[in-house]
Amino acid sequence: GREQAELTGQRLASLGLKFDQIIHSSMTRATETTEIISKHLPGVKKISTDLLREGAPIEPDPPVSHWKPEAVQYYEDGARIEAAFRNFIHRADAKQEEDSYEIFVCHANVIRYIVCRALQFPPEGWLRMSLNNGSITHLVIRPNGRVALRTLGDTGFMPPDKITRT
Prior knowledge:
This protein is α/β, with parallel strands linked by helices. The protein has helices at residues 2-14, 28-38, 71-88, 108-118, and strands at residues 19-25, 45-49, 101-105, 136-141, 147-154. The protein has one domain (1-160): Rossmann fold (3-Layer(aba) Sandwich). Helix 1 crosses helix 2.
């Protein structure tokens, strides 16, 4: 995991973008990953939030047999993850004059749900996507509100022997 975070940090730094902040889940793995990535992005502010913690965002459709959290988990986690979406995924302020770039370090369930919501796909389909650990998903929100997914779970910058998924 640490090697994957190093590679992800190197890849983000190589993009030459001026990142405004890294917003990360308060869970240990995400916090540690953020520390490793941020070494490659000096001066980028880090913000920890419980909203991005891993969880069960909404009951998946179609259902899966290998993962069945208690129904109450969907209500608790789902409300929190939806709050993360509403809090962090939005158009830039009308007064903003330059593009802004934010990094979110969190968990596959959260990322997949946010991607579905941002693209206006049925959010129940979140579990139909698979993400590798340390991958980069690039979501663009244009000033007019249009959303585009540039990459989903990119790990092409990692050697094949470093690619894993949970």
